[in-house]
Structure formats: C-alpha cells, structure tokens
From TrEMBL, chains A, B:
GO terms for molecular function: D-serine ammonia-lyase activity. InterPro entries: Ala_racemase_N (IPR001608), D-amino_acid_metab_enzyme (IPR051466), D-ser_dehydrat-like_dom (IPR026956), D-ser_dehydrat-like_sf (IPR042208), PLP-binding_barrel (IPR029066). The keyword Lyase applies. SUPFAM superfamilies: PLP-binding barrel. Gene3D superfamilies: Alanine racemase (3.20.20.10), D-serine dehydratase-like domain (2.40.37.20). The lineage of its organism: Bacteria, Pseudomonadati, Pseudomonadota, Alphaproteobacteria, Rhodospirillales. PANTHER family: D-SERINE DEHYDRATASE, ZGC:162816-RELATED. Signal peptide: none annotated. Keywords: Lyase. GO terms for biological process: D-serine catabolic process. This is D-serine dehydratase-like domain-containing protein. It comes from Denitrobaculum tricleocarpae. The keyword Transport does not apply.
Amino acid sequence: MTSLTLVETPALVLDRGVLERNCDRMARRMTDAGVRLRPHLKTAKSARVAEVATRGHFGGITVSTLAEARYFLEQGISDLTYAVGLAAGKLDVVARLQAEGARMKLLTDSLDTLVAAEGKADELDADFSFLIEVDTGGLRGGVPPESGVLLELGRYLHESPRLALAGVLTHAGHSYHCHSPAEIEQVAEDERAGAVRAAQRLRDAGLPCEIVSAGSTPTAIRAKSLEGVTEMRPGVYTFFDLDQMALGVCAIEDIALSVVATVIGHNHAAGRILIDAGGLALSKDLSAAEFLEDAGYGLVCPLDATRPLEGVYVDSVHQEHGLIAAKDGPPPYDKLPVGTRVRILPNHACMTAAAYNSYHVVEDGLEVVDTWDRINGWY
Amino acid sequence: MTSLTLVETPALVLDRGVLERNCDRMARRMTDAGVRLRPHLKTAKSARVAEVATRGHFGGITVSTLAEARYFLEQGISDLTYAVGLAAGKLDVVARLQAEGARMKLLTDSLDTLVAAEGKADELDADFSFLIEVDTGGLRGGVPPESGVLLELGRYLHESPRLALAGVLTHAGHSYHCHSPAEIEQVAEDERAGAVRAAQRLRDAGLPCEIVSAGSTPTAIRAKSLEGVTEMRPGVYTFFDLDQMALGVCAIEDIALSVVATVIGHNHAAGRILIDAGGLALSKDLSAAEFLEDAGYGLVCPLDATRPLEGVYVDSVHQEHGLIAAKDGPPPYDKLPVGTRVRILPNHACMTAAAYNSYHVVEDGLEVVDTWDRINGWY
C-alpha cells in the first residue's frame, strides 16, 4: 500500500489496533453486564468497523440513516435498528429493505406517525416493527416514562394488524454534557431506570416489551447497573475523540481517528501556521470546548505520533484552511516548517469522519495497511 | 420529475431563478467595474452552477480542491485558479490535470513551497504558474504587501526556468465579520489597495504581474472602486445565506439554497419540534450568530415558501436531529404537525451544501425541475 507520508491530504486515518482495543473493551463490559451490545454505526459508517464492533455479540447494529441500513444489509448485516424518529414518508424505502432481508426496528414517539405507518403498511403490504422512544432526560426525542401517551402508543402498536411493539428505546444524550464521572453515573442510572420503568408500565398494561434499549458511550462506560436493560447502543467509543476524552471516558491514547494535513504556510503577522485541513476536513464541531480550553478544532500531533505537541491546537477554520495556534506565544514554526505533515486529533469523531468516503487504516505506524469505505448521505 | 413534497429528506434544494438573478447581478456589477469575474465554485461545486455563474464573462473559475479542478475540467472548464495555498505534494495531481488540458494557477506565500515546486517540476517535466498570496488584513494566508519576501517570491518565480509569476491574489476574509456597510467598504478598499500595491512593487522591481486577483462576496458587492484589480473571486453570492443576509449584502429573498426536512416529533417537555435534519444535514456552522440573535442553525420556513415563520429557528442539532424552537414561547406545534415538511434557510451555504451530492433544482415552486450534481471531497 502507501504511507501517511505520501497520501493526499487532508486524509482520514484510523488506527486498527486502537479500534480493536476500544471495541474489545466495550464488548467485554457489555458481556459482563449481561447486556447485548448493538453498536451504533453512525460514527464509523463502515462495514469493516461493524465487523470489529460486533465481535463477541449477536451481530445486530444501530444505524442513523437508511443509506447506512442499505449499505450494511448489502454487507450481510440484517439486524438493524434505525434509531432516529421515523418520518412515515421513509417507509417505502424501509419496506424495500425488508423485502431484501433486513429485520428492521423503527422508532417513534408520535401517534401521528403510527397512524401514517399503518396506512403505509396497508398500501405497501408490509409489516413494521417499532420501538417507542422514551425521553429519560435528553430532551430530544421521546415521551416521558410516566406519560399516558406511552401506553397509547403501546396499545396502538399492539392492536394494529400490521405494526408490532418491539420495546422501548432511550438515549441519554445529556451524558455528553456532564462535568464529572459521578454526574455521568447519575445520568446512566436515570437512563436505565427510565427505560426500565417505561417497559414495566407497558408490561403492566398487558403489552409486550421484549427490548429495553439504552445507551450512549459515556453511560455505557460509567453505568453502575444495567439491570433490566436488554441492549446498549454506544457508538463513538469505537473511535473516541477529544470530547470523550474531556468527559473523562477515554484516555488520549484511545483516540483511534485522526486527520493528516500538510502545513501550507506560516503567517507570522497573524501568529498562525496554516494547514490544508479546514472546516470541511475537521468539521466545525466544538463539543470539546465545553470542557477543554484549548482544544479548538483539534489538537496537533507530529505525523508519527498521536500525542499532541504541548499546547498546540487548531484555533480557527475556514472552508479549506486550518489555522494552528499555540497556547503560550507563537506556534512552533521551527518544528512545523511548510510542507510538514501533521496529525490532528478530532474534536468530535462522528462529525469529522462524515466528510470522507474512506479510512486510511494504519496499525500503530505510518504504513497504510488497508482502506475501508464509509457510507455517507441519506439515500 | 418529482416534487419537494415527495423527495426523501433531508434534501438540498436550489432555486434556479434566484441563482440566476444572483449571478446576473454579480456579472453585471463586475462588467460595470471593468473587472473579470472568476467565480469561486467552492460553494456550489457544480458544473451547472458554474455555467450560470460564468455567463457574460471569460469562463475562468476558482476552485478550492483538486477534486473540483478535475471535475470542472471534465465538464469543459479549463481555466482554473486553485486558491488554497499549495502543498507541493499535490503537484503530481496538478501536473496530470495540466497534461489533460487544465490551465492552472497555483497559490503560495512560501519560498519553501517554491523550492519544492521547482524540484517537482524537474521531476515531472512540468511547468507551474503561481500567484503570490498577499495578506490584506484577513490574517490567513499571504505575505504583507510591503514585505521583502513578496519580492523574493516574485524573483524566485520569475527566474525559475520551470515556474512562472502570474500575479498576486488576496482574499479579505475579514469582510465576513464587518458590522456595517461602511466597514465592508473600508475592508474592500484595503483589499484592493493592498493587492494593487503588491502588484506595483513587483512591477517596480521589473517583475511581471499580469493578474491582480481579489474578492469575497461582501467586498465584491460593497467595493466603491476596483481600480487596478483585474479579477474578482466571490463565491457564496451564487446562493447567499443567513450569514450574508446578516452582513447586509443580500436580502432574504436572494437566498437560493434551502434544506427540506420532515417533522419527526414534538417534545412538549423540552419545548421543541424535532426534524430529520441535524448537524450533518445543516452543518454545525454558526456564522450568522455573530449578527443574528435567533438564527441558530437555520431559519424555518413552510415548505412552499422561503420566508421564515416569524421567530422560528433550529435551536440545536445532533448528528441527525434538528430541534426547532421559537423566540417567544413554545414552537408552533399546530402549524408543524408530525409529518409536515419544512424548509430551512442555511446559516452558511458552503458548509451546508457540502453534505450533499446533488441539488434538487426548483423554479419558484415545489416541482423539482432538474437534479444537478456536486463534487465533494479532495481527491
């Protein structure tokens, strides 16, 4: 193959050894907790990563788009939970995927969606299986565990000849904004307890609730108990990033993803080193800034390392330009002459990876040992 | 074709009538100023848009990646300025494009790059033509107009058997952060004067400087004089966006780009309406927030209009979820029931468009009259 010293920049790099360690650790943790791991592939969007992430578990995955569902189905993964609230207009595509062998679980918190779905099911002569989305504090999708509408949705699904009630699903997205391990533990417990409570209320009403699905990377890692939960859906743990590091759920050496860029200029008047990786190559996500003062759009490492140069970060981005600054004083012009390649640790792996169609896979070195594809877009 | 009521969401929509009006206006303005228009296609990345944007001018364009260069060359556009500081490692690709008929201008502010380029030129048996990047206040790439290194770069290029000095180029990116038309006018004059001064110094030193290239959308629109400038390179004016509107260089009806999304839930506890367009579909860019208090990640319009619902905006985004809020009180649940489609006016068109491979082209209505492709990525 080639080497990171030669690939065209900007380039997305994935360290397979780190990926495998991250995945093995999560798989063991979930096995120890007696819970099925249904990794969320929205971060990696790659069949080769799915292969690593499902090892030791049942093989089902979570997806965030129907484009992912189609791609993974083509790669032989058929147990798919589409974990974004359904728009009923997407059911034509879902029905086609099911006809091709997908076993799909859909998500909603809306009776209007179920009514529309039932109409579509008749029209398409198809059956659809739903999870009810429960809000356990994330304030995104979902009905409260104690709400009346939870039971209404459950009954509608159970009584429909075409629709099925598969269980409940929650995502404690607010775990990304916790300021201590103890706070994440509490969010994890709220997530678990809320999902289990919703399931219990459905069961108490005589409704089936086989699946109790929860999880985010922080809660999967910090949860003290997963009692009553049947599956967890973490995703970003496969790669990790500065945001997760800042949250305290990984160490810097667990970050498997980086972007290789080339130094294209020194602007001494501005006190900045310019690289050919900007807002498109790194994303404009600033999640880690909530916790890390000088993370900017990424931390800057030498090409042959994934340890950042002390205090050196991407301070600002334009579409194709990144501007490197240093915490104290001017950036290290002498260490990073024009033409040098650097490696940027991303702020938020899901957003950074989304700009690329493939990964340059390395194994603890500069040699590119493989190229893995990704599936972007929605259809 | 189809209709915006039926396309899979999220979907990128381009209004051709508005695009044509924006392009015609800029083309006339540049003609009136006696300046060549070399539109920057980094926003649109589309051959069909290039066709509209080059009308009435000489046909040359500006690109931000070599993937764009290859794509536009294949579409018959051969006069290409690659307006990102060159990494010499990219010259193999440049040489191939030139061999296939591209007439390329490259950019640098670094002697190290020129030395490397000369080595590459020998190795590849190719000639390369450069513009010297001048910093007229943007504090990104470029050498100061009064600097000694400007003349060093000019001499090196002029004396090299393989390299050529084509002129100077500047981009007043700081025009995006001006707080009044008068301030933009001043930045435009600084941009003009700096570029012209750099050209004059090269000519005074006996060096050729045919091209004096400047421009951003705000400065192209607000400049009182373009005396001495030979070409302008605005880009985002083709589509415009909330950021440009907030800067006062376009009206809301000049925004040609929007994203169609579907309402997937109502979270009354959170006071939010959920749509299936999140951080990937809209981008995480918040440029307009510098000027507009409640622009968030985009303003929300009914599907059949590009006038926003008063005070209704995308307040936050997750990877595939957007959360709609209203300025005063709860969002309009009754106007936007689950399943409704909305149109989002983007914060920053360049970043939003980058997530899509094509445009659904409309003509002042819901009917999709055409599909235009885009070229993303870098290679």
